Recover the amino acids of this structure.
């Protein structure tokens, strides 16, 4: 029999895709984002400034390592292993939004003055509130520490917003307090 001509085949071994946990989304607390590739021995490089990571560009992270996401950001990452083809760069955008403040006690009708606590579940958030009907914002209204209190000793509408630098502001919460003290005899 005659022998065949030599045939060559090229096989590329590629690192398995990255998994972001938790997934991209909107959160009201700082997140510890874990980057993992199922490929044993893979390393990870990531960026948060919009540049594309490579085996030599970006911050190196061990497989299964975490990134503290404490502000709104886009994380771009690859997984690579010497001698293997790296993954394609993937992105995950994390939007940090301050949690809507709560008013405690709840709005309603009261016969005595109330000390109302205004707080957001987002740690590090600040509060701005108004009692004159205007909308609070990051720059409008009276600033209050998260969980701080105000005295409601007249009928009023309390509006509050939570904010934190680098985060999206919360939704404005609004509550009507009716102050109706008992009538005293004369």
């Amino acid at each position: 029999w005659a022998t065949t001509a030599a045939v060559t085949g090229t096989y590329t071994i590629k690192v398995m895709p990255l998994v972001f946990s938790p997934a991209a989304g909107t959160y009201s607390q700082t997140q510890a984002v874990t980057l993992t590739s199922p490929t044993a021995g893979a390393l990870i490089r990531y960026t948060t400034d919009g540049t594309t990571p490579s085996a030599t560009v970006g911050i190196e992270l061990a497989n299964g390592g975490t990134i503290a996401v404490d502000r709104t950001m886009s994380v771009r990452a690859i997984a690579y292993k010497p001698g293997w083809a790296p993954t394609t760069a993937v992105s995950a955008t994390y939007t940090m939004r301050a949690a809507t403040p709560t008013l405690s006690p709840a709005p309603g009708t009261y016969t005595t003055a109330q000390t109302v606590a205004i707080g957001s579940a987002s740690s590090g958030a600040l509060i701005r509130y108004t009692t004159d009907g205007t909308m609070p914002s990051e720059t409008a209204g009276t600033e209050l520490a998260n969980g701080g209190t105000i005295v409601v000793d007249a009928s009023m509408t309390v509006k509050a917003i939570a904010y934190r630098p680098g985060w999206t502001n919360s939704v404005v919460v609004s509550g009507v307090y009716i102050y109706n003290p008992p009538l005293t005899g004369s």
Q: What stands out?
A: The CA atoms of residues 9 and 142 lie 71 Å apart. The chain has a mean pLDDT of 94.
